[in-house]
Task: structure prediction
Amino acid sequence: GTASGKTSTLNSLAMFIPVSSKIVGIEDTREINLLHENWIPAVTREADAEGRSIDMFALLRSALRQRPEYILVGEVRGREAYILFQAMATGHITFSTIHADSAEAVVRRLTKPPIDVPLMLLDSLNIIALHAMVRIGTKRVRRCLKVLEVLEVDFANERLKTNEVFGWRPDEFEFSGESKVFQEIMAKLTLTKEDVEKEFSRRVRILRHLQEKGPNDFYELSRLFFQYNLDPRGTAERLGVA
Result:
């Protein structure tokens, strides 16, 4: 929904992209902010006096010619989604946001006009994070309600089969313990389950340490994540959470 933290989460996730990666960002209004040297931000342009404009569709098509490793799209609302999913299917890592309150709503929004992405392309989706503005006591806060892994497309019923990896139970986050993506990482990097659990646990400790003690400055955090990407064990030791 509106003001539920979609773009903020997109910004946060993008900070974890490896420092040397080539990234292209595409937005209507410039909101994504990164310190990566190989980040190319692109913004749509309204029609000028001669009627010339640059929309997301044109920017995405141009972005693919630049062979980026990561493509960040502020929000998909129209035909640009087709190219975005084509990029996913050809191996590009993509992040984007969409207005939907469930996995079923994501399918409806993507496969119906004006977006009209073929259902078969949704098989390229890995993860859906559902956000909402919720009330806790007297406060209204933004929370990620669920993190869902897409297992496969149920073509007969036009829906996605998903696995809930994380769920929000006011005001705690619960890990189900089962993750398809972890299994894919294990196979791709030839890691054991113990290796993945150890690395996951270390990252959790570091993020909790940063949440409690800082720094909370965008630039300092970005540099720290870059350092961790280059030297995980050394960075954890310097923070005292190895």
